[in-house]
Amino acid sequence: MNAAPMVALVGNPNAGKSALFNALTGARQKVGNYPGVTVERKAGRMSLADGRPVELIDLPGTYSLEPASPDERVTRDVVLGRQEGERLPAALVIVVDAGNLDNHLRFALQLIDLDLPIVVALNMIDMAERDGLRIDADRLAAELGVPVVATVAVRKRGIEALKAAIGTLAMESGRRAGGVRTPPPSDLAALQKRARAIARAATHETSGARRRSQQIDAVALHPLFGPLLLAAILFVVFQAVFAWAQAPMDAIDAGFAALGSWVDTHLPPGFVRDLLSQGVIKGVGAVIVFLPQILILFGFILLLEASGYMVRAAFMMDRLMARVGLSGRAFIPLLSSFACAVPGIMATRTIDDPKDRLTTILIAPLTTCSARLPVYTLIIGAFIPARAVLPGIGLQGLVLFALYAAGVAGALVAALILRRTVTRGPSPGFLMEMPRYQLPSVRDLGIGLWTRATIFLKRAGTIILASNVALWVLASYPQAPAGMKQSEYSIAGRIASAIELVVRPIGFNHEIALALPPAMAAREVAVSALATVYAIDADSTDETRTDAALGVRMQASWPLPTALAFLAWFVFAPQCLSTIAVTRRETNGWRWPAFMVAYLFCLAYLAAGATFWLATALGL
Ligand SMILES: Nc1nc2c(ncn2[C@@H]2O[C@H](COP(=O)(O)OP(=O)(O)OP(=O)(O)O)[C@@H](O)[C@H]2O)c(=O)[nH]1
Ligand SMILES: [Mg+2]
């Protein structure tokens, strides 16, 4: 066979497989300091020292060859050559955490018994040394009967030696015949005993110093200080989103304003100018302005993930989650949903119990995805005064915090109800390893932010742009006769008038009714649609053209209860088509996505209505 030999990276979760994969192939797979980051098989190409190619595969971490959850099944099938359309791997790279050998060697021993060509990557030796451990790689190799290469994936140490070892194995396997041995039924207790004995033989404790992670955890997981610290961290995050973003947002805003007036003065009046000025620059610009806030939020999330703190947060939430019938394993998927529900729903593959998994999928859209941030901050910026409630604590940040909290509370209540009705069943226990604390690397943080920025800008340039141009066309034609409002006379305006009949009782106005349907494509389109509609109306009426910011215009024409109801709607509404599509894929049918959409719409309608009526009753 001429094709490049296939080599798979396997090992326990959080051993550093993806970090090694990136170091070996130059790829940028997501790494994170918690178990369960990788949930799919990812392939990449690596070149050996002599230039020969090898196809490298990164797999979800797993504890044994007996899979407990869907992502672990992928790993077993690839390793045993049972994956459809996939060859048996020519060799395995078993990745183990040098500081956690007794646990990681158990799975390694199981894999070694398969009789495939194997090299062990003894990863994270830097962390082990920090903890006062010295690992004898030669002794380990002798005990295991396979080559062992010491590596530090994040510093690219040992990568060339590992490449060389992979090269040798790939050559050998070309001369081998036959397949993989069927895995013998494993006696876990015996394996664990062997693993512990080997780990002890190869490890020297050089200092009896108490491990640093344990010292930090004495505070971070303390029954009183732990939750206080978590609350304080979250608080700072939401304050920072408003406090730090103003300058760059003003700059972006000014940039788009300049671009807009250039187009207005240099292009002849007509279709092209209006499309560019109203539909593209005003509309998409209104969304891109929020890039700094999104990056600040993600900067914090990435820091908390890389440091190892997120798993502690999961641990503290576990009691609460258990009480509503969710497994602690649901924490990471729900956390990913703060970025976007799509990867969040995919991350539920780490949950073994099917009903547990289904519940988590159904509530994932309730955690506030980053696409909602522009909508939230637009309304908050326009309607909530920027004053301090207490020294250092701004009201705007507090309201944003409350919106996120409302989403989380909604998710917990929904889980509680679902677990007692549609997804009734016992909820299994939760075991999650605590990763060690680490200082996040600047490079990883940079790559993470860069990835986020490109995802957001790509969305703005594709789905948001396309939806908004479509909206612009529908909102610009037919042209309204003098004296009539374009946003009401146009096709989009008439559709909106029909929708308005349904949403009028919960306080929504015609503009909101117009912005809701295109927001199904992407939530940010609610913002660009409002910006575009205001621009069209300002141009078509003879009122002197004001270039007032979107927020200022809304402030002038929306009653406060309407604005608050709009916020409440966005906390709960199932608003994007990609989420519905991924739910269909992960649950194999239309039944659950249909259920999800229905229950979330009801919830959003009730929440927005209650907010509107309450705010009106309070005379706001
Ligand atoms: N100090 C140190 N950190 C490492 C090393 N290798 C990986 N890490 C960090 O360990 C964490 C886990 O790395 P990943 O590559 O995501 O682990 P994984 O094995 O792919 O985990 P799953 O995908 O969850 O199975 C990340 O925070 C990495 O930055 C290493 O050699 N030294
Ligand atoms: Mg991984």
Descriptive report:
The structure is a single chain. This protein is α/β, with parallel strands linked by helices. The chain contains 27 helices and ten strands. The strands form three sheets. The protein has a six-stranded mixed beta sheet with strand order 2-3-1-4-5-7, sandwiched between helices. Strand 2 (42-47) and strand 3 (53-58) form a beta hairpin. The protein binds guanosine-5'-triphosphate and magnesium ion. Guanosine-5'-triphosphate is lined by residues 13-19, 31-33, 35-38, 60-61, 123-124, 126-127, 152-154, 306, 438. Magnesium ion binds next to helix 1.
List the helices and strands and how they pair.
Blueprint: E1 6-11, H1 17-25, E2 42-47, E3 53-58, H2 70-79, E4 91-97, H3 101-112, E5 118-123, H4 125-130, E6 133-135, H5 137-144, E7 148-150, H6 159-175, H7 188-202, E8 203-205, H8 212-220, H9 225-243, H10 246-266, H11 271-288, H12 291-307, H13 309-323, H14 331-336, H15 341-347, H16 354-363, H17 373-383, E9 388-390, E10 393-394, H18 395-420, H19 442-476, H20 486-489, H21 491-503, H22 510-515, H23 525-540, H24 550-557, H25 560-572, H26 577-587, H27 591-617
Parallel strand pairs: 1-3, 1-4, 4-5, 5-7
Antiparallel strand pairs: 2-3, 6-8, 9-10
Helix pairs in contact: 3-7, 5-7, 9-12, 9-18, 10-11, 11-19, 11-23, 12-19, 15-26, 16-18, 17-18, 17-24, 17-25, 18-25, 19-23, 25-27, 26-27
Residues 17-18, 37-38 line the site of magnesium ion.
